[in-house]
Amino acid sequence: MKEVWDKRYNSDEYIYGLSPNNFLSTNLKKLNIGKILLPGDGEGRNSIYAAKLGWEVTAFDYSSSGKEKALKLAESNNVNIKYEISDVESYNSMEKFDVISIIFLHLPKETRVKFHKNLHKFLKPEGQVILECFSKSQIENKSGGPKDLKLLYSLDDLKNDFSEYKIDFIEKTDTVLDEGPLHQGKADVIRLIARNP
């Protein structure tokens, strides 16, 4: 899979656009500025947005071409981000974050459950997870996301994954994506905000 994403990101075009994810940007503006972790942030659009707001940003992805583009975007926006090459199973940090933002990061079930349940290790007490993903209904749409039902999520999946957190908000809804050439049009998503107890 690393090779697939390296190839996908290996162009001058930012395939998911330069603007941040709407759900993340709407909610991040409501919070006090602190430290944020962005797993699977690809070309860095969400990291750069957070850094421009004043957040101390750490991101990781297993694509080296994604990292290259993210750092280039950071430089052109005069911000600094810390960007590591890692997959979700290998990532480790001694830092504790105020927010972890997971935007359209789709994982096989076993990996997903373990990753979500381990996030508390990287969160401060009352730290928040802000997550948006494609629901299983997205399989009918042509606006992006995996074409494998096993990589799409349900409300119950996320309620179970975050059962030990305080879930402040969760919804399954439809939206219209305008995020670069690969996220365009009607989409079925799940949005979640959960707090580390």
Folded structure, characterized:
This protein has about 200 residues and is an alpha/beta fold. The protein has a single domain, classed as 3-Layer(aba) Sandwich (Rossmann fold), CATH 3.40.50. About 25% of the residues lie in helices and about 30% in strands. The chain has 6 helices and 7 strands, in the order ααβαβαββαβαββ. A 7-stranded mixed sheet has the order 3-2-1-4-5-7-6. Helix 4 (about 65-75) links the parallel strand 2 (about 55-60) and strand 3.
Topology, pairings included?
Elements: H1 2-9, H2 22-28, E1 35-39, H3 45-53, E2 56-61, H4 64-76, E3 82-85, E4 97-103, H5 109-118, E5 123-134, H6 155-161, E6 166-179, E7 183-195
Parallel strand pairs: 1-2, 1-4, 2-3, 4-5
Antiparallel strand pairs: 5-7, 6-7
Can you tell me the residue ranges where pLDDT is under 50 for at least 5 consecutive residues?
A: none
What structural class do you assign from the helix and strand content? alpha/beta
- Work out the radius of gyration: 15 Å
- Under CATH, the homologous superfamily reads Vaccinia Virus protein VP39
Number of domains: 1
Q: Approximately how much helix is present in the residues?
A: 25-40%
Terminal-residue CA separation: 34 Å
Instruction: Going across the biggest sheet, name each strand in turn.
Output: 3-2-1-4-5-7-6
| β-strand number | 7
Please count the helical segments: 6
